[in-house]
Amino acid sequence: MFRLGMRKRKLVILVASRNSAAVKAAWTLKDTEVREALSTDAAFKSLSGVRLAVLDVEHLETGSISPDRLSNVLQHAGVVVCSGDEFAASPQAYVEQALSALGALDSLPPRAVTITGHSGGVGKTTLALDLVAFVAERLRLTAALVEVGYGASPLRALIAPDLPDFYAVVTQGEMPGAWRRATVLPMEHRTARLLLNRSEVPEMLAGLKQRHVLTVFDAAPTHPLFDLARSLSDLVLVVSDTRLDSIANAAHLADELRRSREPHHVQVMFNRQKSLRDRALLAGIEGAAHLPEIASPARCDGRLARRVMPVIYPGWRE
Q1: Per the structure, how many domains does the chain have?
Q2: Chain-centre distance of CA 50, in angstroms?
Q3: Is 36 in the same domain as 182?
Q4: pLDDT digits (tens, 9 = 90+) for 114-163
Q5: What are the pLDDT digits (tens) for 213-232?
Q6: Domain range spanning residue 85?
Q7: What one-character DSSP code corresponds to residue 152?
């Protein structure tokens, strides 16, 4: 659970894997206690206080504790579990997840998220606004929202028509605008399209991300800058509502993105649920979060954000 202002406590990591890169990565971490195990029994005996387990059960000698039982114990104990390959590729990300569940972080670790979807009217922009407003106003942390889309800017139409746009920030040195303490960068496609091949664009977006705890890209998946937004993001959230065509579009887009990224970096969210019928329709359909409808950005009171934050920051609680 994230509780801002707490001191960082030592994290206990169980490495039950013969993956040499994962073992090396674990031992190079600071403020951690590493316990190695090469059998299911040894792993089970080492579980006291463990908050992160690097587990490859196929590498372990099976004793009186079965691999399934070991996995179930870890799951029910709320331990963050990853494979040796996953941990070796991104050790700090898994450490942050485990520390969040331990309630031992001074602040939220920096994250960038792309919110996307093929279907219109599913509430992508409202979700993005609710999320950055919650982080900026409720948590008093830096948050930025970047629009990557076609046509006139929905952000300008929704919150302020005079916000400096993408083109003005990149070419004229204007500072991005603000809304409810969050940095907001709308895009007018008629001018932004002139910048698609300019080197200043990735530099500006990377700098924006570096200056904020949470950066949200509200991005159309067919936009030429979508791949740039996704490359800067830790997570892609594909948004659907309860319409059947929207659900099918979201599933197709998520599958397409998962073929080009690690699957756990792409999640589907179901937004704008209004009734028992909607909940019944989505019963049995896997989604990272199921979200209620918000009438307008003026009603952005954190109801969506509170359900999305644990997806972005596993283990988060307010």
Answers
A1: 2
A2: 24
A3: no
A4: 999 988 888 899 999 999 999 999 888 889 999 999 999 999 998 989 99
A5: 899 999 999 999 999 999 99
A6: 11-102
A7: S
